Amino acid sequence: MVGTTVFAFALVAFIGITTPGPTVLLALSNGSRFGVRRACLGMVGAVLSDFVLIGAVALGLGALLAASEFWFSVVKWLGAGYLAFLGVMLLRSKGTLDAALQPVDSTTDTGTSRSIFLKSFLVAVTNPKGYLFFSAFLPQFIDPAAAQAQQYLVLAIVFAGIDFIVMFGYALLGAQAVRMLRRSGAVWLDRICGGALLALAGSLALYRRAGA
């Protein structure tokens, strides 16, 4: 795989990742609620999901979802339901300004390391659009005459690295913004992220496979 191909992939990936999606919105929310350090736990979950999605596409799962209405619908409704659940939780939030400015109690339901990690991981792996996106996107940068496993690994590492950097930026933005807001402002930041996640859940629920 030549350097120009990797660079082209990185450029397109960066443009796609910076467009706010579920994991980016969670990074913004986690940064505002728990601080950048704890938000990194969610970023690790999202990065792990990148490897899972790309590995699944390399093994043909993306093609299966593109061909099977049943399995596509199963993954789609799981993803839409989970996004909607997270959106409602943020809409019901009473604001977390104090929690963002002070050490987080690791025993809280929403602030545990496991919870922060799993939310970002599950949001990504239950989104069928991710599998279809990678199925259509990755083969354009794969040389069929060369060993494909190594190429997929390189692209996965590049994509995951860019994904982490972008999410870190959003988490930092959230952490800085919440320090500039009063309690009511912190509540509205949660509301905005929650509403955006609900909108994404609705978009996913209405999403159809190409040719369906």
Question: In words, what does this structure look like?
Answer:
This protein has one domain (3-14, 22-206). It is 79% helix and 0% strand. The protein has 10 helices and no strands. The longest helix has 33 residues, at 148-180.
What is this entry, summarized?
By secondary structure, the chain is mostly helical. The protein has helices spanning 3-18, 22-34, 36-58, 61-67, 69-91, 97-101, 113-125, 128-137, 148-180, 183-206. The longest helix has 33 residues, at 148-180.
- Mass-distribution shape: globular
How many domains make up the coordinates? 1
* Order of H and E elements: HHHHHHHHHH
Q: What share of residues are in beta strands?
A: under 5%
Overall radius of gyration: 18 Å
Secondary structure elements and pairings:
Elements: H1 3-18, H2 22-34, H3 36-58, H4 61-67, H5 69-91, H6 97-101, H7 113-125, H8 128-137, H9 148-180, H10 183-206
Which keywords apply here?
single chain, 212 residues, mainly alpha, 10 helices, 79% helix
